């Protein structure tokens, strides 16, 4: 007698921090992630031992429309103030997204897709019709993310900038660096966004760093010496990369960061900033970021 195959688990959110709905994913190697409907925000990514790979502030405010501090906020339709929207980093990270797809294997999900479509509320901030979709998948020790934006208008072309504002957890900022940006031009946001060239092989953090690197390699690495690991970043259709650490004063001045949190994270934000994306009616733009963690330092 054959045993009937159990039906797939339906796509449905679970309740995460502060009663916010979201999704939990688990890879075949035991890596886990939590993604919130609020902002389609990746709140965590942990290895099989439960160690955090992404930083999430203990002071994060899980109270919409406030963005969640840490993880991977989605900056759309602009990064910072570089774009068409009056809202810093756009509005995607502050909106409620809809869970539209969720796979299941032995009652554990490994992949999900969230969607945000233009509405009266978004058109008050940015007067365009669009559909954005954000996919997250865990494959072994890898997190795959992709963002697509479709111009759903039948008449108007629009432009935007975007970034995946990824917060990486590190054991000690003094022993952390970002590799792969040597001899790359950047805009120094701490110096009037003057264009400079980084002659160093790696970006280190002896002080505040806030740089928009332009036309960067598709493969970068976060070297976390204190935790004896390297996080590889492979990005597609995201030519720029923002590197940021707020250091002491800005950390203390930020209400949803602890005073010493600057020691525990750095941001590498795969982005499309220098050349805004231009979409004609009916066109779709797709970008992706694949993260892989490995033992040892490059």
How is this structure best described in words?
The protein has 298 residues and is mainly β. It has one domain (14-171, 243-295): Distorted Sandwich (Beta-galactosidase, Chain A, domain 5), CATH 2.70.98. Helix content is 4%, strand content 45%. A nine-stranded antiparallel sheet has the order 6-7-8-9-20-17-16-11-14, with no helix packed on it. The protein has a seven-stranded antiparallel sheet with strand order 5-10-19-18-15-12-13, with no helix packed on it. A hairpin with an 8-residue loop joins strand 6 and strand 7 (111-117). The longest helix is centred in the C-terminal third of the chain and has 7 residues, at 247-253. It is globular. The chain starts with 13 loop residues before the first strand and ends with a strand.
Task: Offer a few descriptive terms.
298 residues, mainly beta, Beta-galactosidase, Chain A, domain 5, seven-stranded antiparallel beta sheet, 2 helices, 45% strand
Task: Tell me briefly what this model is.
The chain is 4% helix and 45% strand. The protein has two helices and 20 strands.
What is Rg? 19 Å
Uncertain residue segments: 1-10
| Average predicted confidence as pLDDT | 93
Total beta strands: 20
Total tally of structural domains:
1
- Percent in helix: under 10%
CATH domain fold name = Beta-galactosidase, Chain A, domain 5
3D shape: globular
Blueprint of the fold:
Elements: E1 14-15, E2 21-26, E3 32-36, E4 41-46, E5 74-75, E6 98-102, E7 111-117, H1 120-125, E8 130-139, E9 142-151, E10 158-169, E11 176-179, E12 184-188, E13 194-198, E14 202-203, E15 209-213, E16 219-224, E17 229-236, E18 240-245, H2 247-253, E19 265-279, E20 284-295
Antiparallel strand pairs: 1-2, 2-3, 3-4, 5-10, 6-7, 7-8, 8-9, 9-20, 10-19, 11-14, 11-16, 12-13, 12-15, 15-18, 16-17, 17-20, 18-19
């Amino acid at each position: 007698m054959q045993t009937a195959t159990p039906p797939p688990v339906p796509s449905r959110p679970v309740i995460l921090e502060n009663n916010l709905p979201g999704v939990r994913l688990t890879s075949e190697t035991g890596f886990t992630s939590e993604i919130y409907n609020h902002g389609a925000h990746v709140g965590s990514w942990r290895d099989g031992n439960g160690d955090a790979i992404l930083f999430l502030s203990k002071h994060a405010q899980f109270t919409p429309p406030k963005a969640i501090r840490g993880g991977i906020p989605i900056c759309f339709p602009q990064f910072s103030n570089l774009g068409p929207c009056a809202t810093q980093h756009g509005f995607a990270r502050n909106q409620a997204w809809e869970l539209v797809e969720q796979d299941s294997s032995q009652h554990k999900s490994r992949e999900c897709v969230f969607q945000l479509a233009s509405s009266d509320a978004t058109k008050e901030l940015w007067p365009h019709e669009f559909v954005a979709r954000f996919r997250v998948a865990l494959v072994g020790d890898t997190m795959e993310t992709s963002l697509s934006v479709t111009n759903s208008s039948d008449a108007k072309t629009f432009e935007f900038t975007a970034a995946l504002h990824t917060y990486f957890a590190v054991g000690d900022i003094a022993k952390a660096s970002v590799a792969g940006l040597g001899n790359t031009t950047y805009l120094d946001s701490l110096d009037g966004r003057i264009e400079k060239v980084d002659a160093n092989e790696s970006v280190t953090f002896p002080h505040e760093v806030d740089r928009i690197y332009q036309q960067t390699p598709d493969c970068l690495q976060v070297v976390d010496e204190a935790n004896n690991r390297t996080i590889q970043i492979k990005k597609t259709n995201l030519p720029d990369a923002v590197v940021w650490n707020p250091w002491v004063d800005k950390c203390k001045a930020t209400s949803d960061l602890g005073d010493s949190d600057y020691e525990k994270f750095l941001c590498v934000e795969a982005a499309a900033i220098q050349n805004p994306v231009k979409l004609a009616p009916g066109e779709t733009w797709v970008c992706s970021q694949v993260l892989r963690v490995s033992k040892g330092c490059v």
